[in-house]
Amino acid sequence: MVSSLLSVRSLLFSIFMLMAGSGFLATLMSLRLEAAGTTQLLIGLIGTAYYAGLTLGALRAGRIIERVGHIRAFTAFVSLFSASTLACTVWQEFGFWAVLRFIEGLSLAGVFICIESWLNERATPQTRGAILAFYMVALYAGQGAGQFLLDLGNRVPALPFIAASILLSLAVIPIALTRIPGPALGGATPLSFVRLYRISPLGIIGAAVTGVMLGGFYALGAIYAHGLGMGRPQTALFMSLVILGGVVLQIPIGRLSDRFDRRKVIIGTFAGTGLVSLVLGLLARRPDIVDTLGLLFGGLVFTLYPLCVAHTNDFLEPDQRVGASGGLVLVYSIGAAIGPIIAAMAMTRIGPGGLFYFLALAAAAAVGFGVWRQRVREPVPNEQQQPYQILPRTTPIAATLDPNTAEEG
């Protein structure tokens, strides 16, 4: 196992650097646009542009990789991302930045496909779980650490973008020098949304609602924190704690879902997320306890997507799981593209707390749908449930990393 992890250390280091350089850009751009007087709706559209690019890239970037190879494609995608990040310093205007964020989402999808297909090629049934766990640690740790680069722009406004570009450029070096061969892409053709709904209505609706919630939060969470009077360091800490919280409750909640009716755990987690969101909305004037609540919010909301994947897998044959997980990633991404627009409308009407009022309403809708599904469908027996697995919400290729699909490799 140790040798297998060492064989992918360059990939893990690259993804950490990439997430450190890119993970705080949404926060930074939101704060810059708000300071320039841009409306919250337009700021929300910036988030939508990013997730639209991520979704399109997840569907199309594989063709480029197959044509030119993994290393060349990876280098091209990161270079494009780095260039678009630097271009943000040229002109701060909503339309221009929206185009750049779309390009960044497109580029990052290509990066994820390269990394995840490499990791899948190096994984064995014995090491797949460990490699996936380290991949998730690199993703979350990089994204969380990167938030603290926000404060670099106090004296030189362009410095955070320059720092991001440097980190992105450095991430290319381990990949450019790697001797890991580029694997063939395949095995991750997503199931159609109609088929997914017929298999597991709660799984696909839950994934979509989770996307709406997290897309809205990532696009506008910094605006919420700033609206509470937080400065850049406090905003960076708040965003980082939410991301850190995404790691804390994954295993405890996952274990519960393996032992009991998974639908009850999904409903309970949505209900808990909605309750915490409601409190965050109501206490928009109490920034002294917002950090603690943010940690709890992250711990709950980040667990929802893998719960929905596990619930869907409970109804599938082994050879369907990769396709289903790939389809759920796309459903999540589409939801994430929609979420920022609606969240921005809520904040425009209500104020900073409107973000979390909207998230609470979305969670309540998912709870209602889940309760209805409990009444019309019998639960899967506990002994037939698939094991819960922490999963990234990146591209359909990520589905091949799930140890539960190891037999399809």
TrEMBL record:
One of its GO terms (molecular function) is transmembrane transporter activity. One of its GO terms (cellular component) is plasma membrane. It holds the Pfam family MFS_1. InterPro entries: MFS (IPR011701), MFS_dom (IPR020846), MFS_sugar_transport-like (IPR005828), MFS_trans_sf (IPR036259), MFS_YcaD-like (IPR047200). Its main location: membrane. It comes from the Bacteria. It is found in: Membrane. Keywords: Membrane, Transmembrane, Transmembrane helix. PANTHER family: MFS TRANSPORTER (PTHR23521:SF3), TRANSPORTER MFS SUPERFAMILY (PTHR23521). This is Putative major facilitator superfamily transporter. It comes from Acidiphilium multivorum (strain DSM 11245 / JCM 8867 / NBRC 100883 / AIU 301).
